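Study this pair:
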Amino acid sequence: MTIDKTLPMRLAMRQEGDKWNAYVAKPDTMEGAIWIGSIALRFIEDDPKREKAFLALMRDAVGDIIRDITGHKPTWSETRAAPEHERTKG
């Protein structure tokens, strides 16, 4: 199953200060987003394997939430850049 864009949530990843944070967010806004995890950038900046591992962990976490609601665990096939209005500054 792929993520249905009508679902009321998505995984949103944001670089904030010295951390890479993961949130469960509404499809079109960060308003009301719920933080689910973070990792210090120094642990992933020069290690793509660690970055992928952290992203996989956060996808699994959100997938579990979606499975609990819908009965189906999603598959993840695309990564999209955040809309300009959602991007962190600095």
Observations:
- Residues 10-76 form one domain.
- The first helix runs from residue 48 to 70.
- The helical segments are 48-70.
